[in-house]
């Protein structure tokens, strides 16, 4: 079991679900987790009684370490394609949700963890300087996809995005707040309660007007991926299959194992 | 008479007009006011001796309460279409003006009041925390048109716009200044004098180069509306004619009357 | 000799070149300098051992005064066209470089000086309030080209760009830092050492991933110029050839000579 959430726990009149990521040790986004996540998300989306989702982690100190590198390493092209399609789907579901999505970032959130945060409507992060958030793809020799770049630009602007993406910067909470990568930083033990109280603020707005407004803002970015989704998959498969990329991912995995060991 | 302004009062060498909105009790943008405003504006625009306009209110505590809701309530489709075309025209005239347009925001400025401010070249607001400014459409169950959203994005960026529009946020002056929704906040009794002195700064720039620069910046946004103006009208008429929208606008009007009563 | 630089001085493992602009008295960007610059730049770009360039001035108090106005004054259309093509080429080379480009802005940097800074990857400015940076074209009655406007918007956002460009604002270092026109301000005697240490940070990132990311960010802006390069030249030639523009540039040159004399 990788996800635990009371579907539409009716917290007062809020009708808000909480998704707690639980894929030890670091909430890696494996193909299995992505698949389960999307199925669960669709259920919530179709449940008219559910108006908001709080996305958080059930594992101390880590929101999500991002994509599971073992899915991108030593597998065949068909596997890479299936995996990338699931990553796209995760983003599409989150970014186009009719529900209010609040990320309660209670730990580090690099790469894919940052992707999930960026695709939410509001980001609250635990204010502990040991935690960082950002898109650090270039550090591993890989490149964020254009639609994730677009999501970052939509959030922190063009220049901060260019700088952060080129250098693969990971920001501690205070810096992340300063550049607008998160909306609020609070002590770790206040993350969940702040998420709930912000959710109640958001839910004072009539759903229909809010959803139309959200769609108006995000549709152009979403359409860019929808109209070249297959090309984006092929681009990923071609890049990740390169010997040089496979070699550096293998070395990175080895480094992670040794550090852990 | 809803507008009072000395056409091109030659204040020193400045040749600046001041438009003082006066449509009691709250400077609602009625069809009549919009029509008069546009006619007066065209006169100024064609008057070569006029280089700048200061846009302000003649009514204490309110810059403009925004669109007159009675124009959107209980009327027929032809009326809604005429009204919306006048709203578009107001924005087009302000946003594409060859004159320097400075908003002297001497009171609250929600929705349509914020629209006029955003379409100016420079915004000075009275620093009184009782006044607020913002696009609060979603609070009423309606949605800002795409060209007003674009104007907001052009001013405060994508993320701040998405957040403010989804939640219908109204900002007190200090917060409005912080996110760039206004350029300057000053004590209420300094609003007009600051507007005049900023105007004299702007008018040190050769008109022709400044106008070409302004057009270069704003033309793409303006063209978006020009090429789908009729569709935007039909979209508004269709939306506002819905039973559910009419019902919530009626309730809002009733609430306003009772509060006033 | 207008440029002095040790080509790929192997500073430790950094393999970084330094270009010191030297065209007394104020590093004007003459056609000759632009031509030499581009040839030198191509050599560096093709030198696989060179990973980064620091761009700075060899002349005290001035980074670059911008385009050489004598190239735009009293010449024929063919000359204006050749000159403008060289200006475009300077921007294209800098903005699309595979190398890390850091501007060490050790003096004032108006107009073309600001262009070179904006086209870099990172900007460090000497923190002396006597120095300013910005695009002050409108002050001279001329207009920044659209691709330079785009570069500014990419750096400081739409609103700050519109405001700065309309008014031809020149910012002292502290203000330039505040709006994001430069990334860092340091005491003048620390500019070069800070540039080197920042370069070493940037060079920790694998080149290939960083270059792909940079291209992803900048290609749309670059493509806009590439697809209408000739039209942009003709637009410049037509504008600069106008009697009114020639007259104001002549007056400005006369003013500069008298001030100098």
Automatic annotation (TrEMBL), chains A, B, C:
Its biological purpose: Key enzyme of fatty acid beta-oxidation. Able to isomerize both 3-cis (3Z) and 3-trans (3E) double bonds into the 2-trans (2E) form in a range of enoyl-CoA species, with a preference for (3Z)-enoyl-CoAs over (3E)-enoyl-CoAs. The catalytic efficiency of this enzyme is not affected by the fatty acyl chain length.
GO CC annotations, alphabetized: mitochondrial matrix
GO function terms (MF aspect): delta(3)-delta(2)-enoyl-CoA isomerase activity
Family: Belongs to the enoyl-CoA hydratase/isomerase family.
Catalytic activity: a (3E)-enoyl-CoA = a 4-saturated (2E)-enoyl-CoA; (2E)-tetradecenoyl-CoA = (3Z)-tetradecenoyl-CoA; (3Z)-dodecenoyl-CoA = (2E)-dodecenoyl-CoA; (3Z)-octenoyl-CoA = (2E)-octenoyl-CoA
Main localization category: mitochondrion
Organism: Phascolarctos cinereus (Koala)
This protein's UniProt keywords: Acetylation, Fatty acid metabolism, Isomerase, Lipid metabolism, Mitochondrion, Transit peptide
Enzyme Commission no: 5.3.3.8
Oligomer status and interactors: Homotrimer.
Gene, per the UniProt record: ECI1
PROSITE patterns found in the cross-reference section: ENOYL_COA_HYDRATASE (PS00166)
Subcellular location(s) per record: Mitochondrion matrix
Gene Ontology terms describing biological process: fatty acid beta-oxidation
Protein name: Enoyl-CoA delta isomerase 1, mitochondrial
